[in-house]
Amino acid sequence: MTGFLFQRLIQSAVVLAVMSFVIYWLMGLMPGDPIDLMISADPKITSEDAARLRALYGLDKPITERYLNWLGAAVGGDFGFSRLYAKPVPEALLPALANTVRLLGITLCLSLLIGLPAGMAAAIRPYSKTDYTINLLAFAGISLPAFWLALLLIIVFSVFLGVLPAGGVAALGGDGFWDQAKYLVLPVANLTIASVGGHTRYMRAAMIEALRQDYIRTARAKGAGPARVVLGHALRNALIPVVTIVSLDFGFLFSGALITETVFAYPGMGKLIFDAIMGNDYNLALVALLFVTLLILIGNLLADLAYAWLDPRISYR
Amino acid sequence: MRGPMVDTADGMMALALKRFRRHRLAIAGAVVLAVLASLAATAPLIATILGLDWEAVDLLNRFAPSSAAHPLGTDELGRDLFIRLLYGGRISLLVGLTATVVAALIGTAIGLLAGFYGGRLDALLMRFTDSVIALPLLPLLIVLAAVDLDKLGLPSSLVQSQYVSLYRIIAIVALVGWTTVARLVRGAALTVRERDFVLSARGYGAGGFRIMTVHILPNLISPVIVATTLSVGNVILLESVLSFLGLGIQPPIPSWGNLLTNAQELIWTAPGLAMWPGMLIFITVIALNFLGDGLQDALDPKATD
Q: Contact, A241 vs A249, CB < 8 A?
C-alpha cells in the first residue's frame, strides 16, 4: 500500500512538473510579452529601452533558464504579481478559490444526492418505464451545452420572471446569508444539471453490474428482502467504481465551473483563469492553472485511498 | 446443442442489426443526424432556393420576428438566422467529425502500441493517458486557443488564412480527445493478442506492425466505433463552448457556438436569439449519444440475444 501510494505520489509530481513547464512555455507564446505591454502603455519607450528592459527582466534568456528562474522563485514562495488585480498572485487567487470551492462543493453534494439514488432506481429494474425515463433525463443532462443552459436559466429566471440575479455574488450592501444565497442558485442549478446525468449513468452501470454477481443470488436465495439485497449487498460494491469515476471527473467538473462562472460573472477560479488568459495576466494564469491541476491530482490520490478502503480485496502489493 | 450457434460474420452482423433495431432512441438519433447533416450539406442550395444569403446585412431589419422571408427572423445585423444556422451547422458538424476522427486515429495508435507490446511501454503510455485525463481540459484548451501562432513559427500563409481558426480548433481538440479510444483499444488489444490466430501469425513470422494492423485492428473495430460516436458529441460541445467564449471558430465564419457569443450581450433585448443555436447543439449531441448507446448495446459481444 505505501509502495503504491509512493509510486502515485511520484507520478503526480512528474505530471505537475511537466505541466508547469508546458504551461510556462505556452504562456510565452501568448500574443504580446510584458515588454510589448509596457511599450503600448508608454509610447516614449525606445527600442533600446525595450531591449534593456528585456535584459533586466531576463526575457532575452532561453526558455529553460527563464523557467528554472521562475520555478526557483515559486518554490521560494514568490509567485509574482498579478497585472489584472494589481496585487500579489496568492492574494488574487485565494478569494476566487473560496468561491469555487463553495460552488463545486454544493454542486457535487446535490448532484450525488440526486444522481446516485436515480441511478439505483434505474438499475433495480433495467429496461422498465422508470429506467427508460431516468435514462432519457440523464442523457438530456449530459448532452446540454452548459453555457447555453446558463443562458436559458438567465432568460427564464432573470429576464422573464425577474426573480433571481443574472450574475455576480452579492448586491451592494447585501451581506446577509439569503442575499448571497440568491446569487448561488442559478450557477449551482446550472452546474448540477450539467453533472447529474453523468453521475446517474455511472451509478446505474455499476449497480447493474453488481446485481449480476453471484453473491447477490446467494443473498436472495437465503431470503434477504429486495431492500436488504440492494442496500446491504450490492450498493457497497457498486460504489467502488463510482467513487473512482467521480473523482476522476474533477477535471471535467472544473471545466464546467469555468463555463458557469464565466457566464454568470461568478468570481471563482474558472473565471479568474479565463480573465487572466484573455487579459494577458500570465503570472496569474500560470499559477492558477497549476494550482487547479495540483488540487485535481490530490483529489485523484485521495480517490485511490478511498478505493483501497472501500475494497479490501485490493492489496496494491 | 443449446440452440442455434452463430459464428459467422454474417450471423454476427444480423444479430447486431437486430439488437440495434430494438433501440428506438438510437434509430431516432440516426434519423435526426441524417436530416441535420443533409440540411447542412445542402445549405448553399437551400440558400439559393429561398433567395437568402448568410452574409447579407440588412440594418433596417434587425431583430425581425419570423416571417415568410426570414423563417426564424434576423439577428442584430439583420442577417437571416435560419440560413446562418445551416452554415454554422456545416462548420460545427465538420469540426466535430474531423477532430474526432483525428483523435480516434491517435488513440488507436497509442492504444495498439500499449496493448500489443505491453510491459514498460504499456505502463508509460497508460500513465501518460491517465495524466491527460486528469487535467483540467477546458482551461488548457483556452490557453492553446489563445497562443500566438506566429510565435510558434508556423508559415504565415497558414496563420493569415481565413480558415486558420478551423484548423486550430480541430488540432487542439484532437490533441486532448484521444484518451477514451486509447484506453478502450489498449484493453481490447491486450485480450486479442493472446488469441490463437495472433499466435499463429507470429509463428509464421509476421512482424509487429503486420500483426497489429492486419490481425488485431479488425477485431477492435466495434469498441472504436462506439467510442468515436460517443466522442463526436463531446467534441461538438467543446468546439461550441470555445467558439462561444470567442476562442474557437472566428466570425464571420458562423458556427453554432459563436452564434451564441452575441446572444449573451443581447439577452435583455433579444432573448430569442439564444434559442436556436443552442437547441441545435443539444439535439445533435443527444442524437449522437443515443446512437452511440444503441451501437454499444448492438455491438456488445457479451450480449446473447
A: no
What domains are there in chain B, each with its CATH number? 24-299 (1.10.3720.10)
Contact A283, A83 (CB under 8 A): yes
Q: Give residue A133's identity as a one-letter amino acid code.
A: T
**Which of A 237-296 lie inside 8 A of B, CB atoms?**
248, 250-252, 254-255, 258-259, 262-263, 270, 273-274, 277-278, 285, 289, 292-293, 296
Residues in Cβ contact with A86 at an 8 Å cutoff, skipping those fewer than 6 apart: none
DSSP output for A151-214:
HHHIIIIIIIS--S-SS-S--TT--SHHHHHHHHHHHHHHHHHHHHHHHHHHHHHHHHHHHTSH
The 3-state DSSP class for residue A145 equals coil
B88 vs B98: CA distance, rounded Å: 15
> What is the rounded CA–CA span in Å between residue A315 and residue A310?
12
The CA distance from B204 to B27, in Å, is 44
Per-residue pLDDT tens digits for A66-88: 888 888 888 888 888 888 888 88
Count of C-beta atoms within a 10 Å radius of residue A284: 28
The Cβ of residue A299 has, within 10 Å, a number of other Cβ atoms equal to 18
Q: Nearest by CB to A140, which of B136, B139, B286?
A: B286
Which residue type does A155 have? I
The ipTM value here is 0.85
The backbone torsions φ and ψ at residue A45, rounded to the nearest 5 degrees and listed phi first, read: -65, 125
Question: What is the band of A234 on the pLDDT scale with cuts at 50, 70, 90?
Answer: confident
Sign for the pseudo-dihedral over CA of A193, A197, A203, A204: positive
- The CA distance from B253 to B168, in Å, is 14
